[in-house]
């Protein structure tokens, strides 16, 4: 049975934080003589990393791999105060591309610690964002990644507990864990607004709606992208077969057997051209009906880091193309 229709989720792909982070690297490469160093992947997508590396960005795992006094960029996922202290000791010229929504979570953790509260961070162990957030208040924060862990976590004073979350979690998964914590700690303090970022929520909402009508959902994104993995899980939860792929070449024709409608989306760090390659793949199979489904309109933008804005202003520049 041939595929009759392909649906494109909107919103999909780059969020404001990712756009900003990529712009930061591109602008730094033009403002400063090469090389410009980036600690960790600026965003979790191998195609983005390859493109920036080809322009001269040097990606390193740790600051020890960067020469003293060099230009260094922190990734969108944020860093701990310990990393910032190392950067200062090495006299690095730092440009901070941390997503403003991640910075908000860091500030919440610090505020809760100053209020002498035990902090529970809902997130995934080993994720760079989680490492950075926990580094803000070592000794006062515990990581919880499952309902089972939420049932067992212990705190010194059950009346003084606050919770915050990794920004790229699955919305429903995070809420289930928080409800367990709220039951166990009735005076639990939660942020004034959800920590899970607008882009993560919107992309999950969109893919869930499309998955209800699709037989197959393809999510463009790298395997180390937390929000991309969550999109696949949300699609499966809505009843569709779903796969996470880096590009069109990873599509297995066996997945298409019995499929009449395919939905396509992309994680917040996946470039749009990868989506269009998948569309071209289905057009090559004879799919004529390609429909973009607008679920939520996004208008969020973020300002450039102040250190980059100051440098541009000092040079009399307003924009670098």
Summarize the structure in words.
The protein has 321 residues and is α/β, with parallel strands linked by helices. It has 3 domains: 5-14 and 198-294, Cobalt-precorrin-4 Transmethylase, domain 1 (3-Layer(aba) Sandwich), CATH 3.40.1010; 16-99 and 302-314, Rossmann fold (3-Layer(aba) Sandwich), CATH 3.40.50; 101-184, Cobalt-precorrin-4 Transmethylase, domain 1 (3-Layer(aba) Sandwich), CATH 3.40.1010. 39% of the residues lie in helices and 18% in strands. It has 11 helices and 12 strands. The chain has helices at 16-31, 46-54, 81-89, 100-114, 128-136, 147-152, 171-184, 198-211, 226-237, 272-284, 306-314, and strands at residues 5-10, 36-39, 57-60, 71-74, 93-96, 118-122, 141-144, 161-165, 216-220, 241-245, 261-266, 289-294. A 5-stranded parallel beta sheet has the order 10-9-11-1-12, sandwiched between helices. A 4-stranded parallel beta sheet has the order 3-2-4-5. Helix 9 links the parallel strand 9 (216-220) and strand 10 (241-245). Helix 4 (100-114) runs parallel beside helix 5 (128-136) and helix 8 (198-211) runs parallel beside helix 9 (226-237). The longest helix has 16 residues, at 16-31. The chain starts with a strand and ends in a 7-residue tail after the last helix. The mean pLDDT is 96.
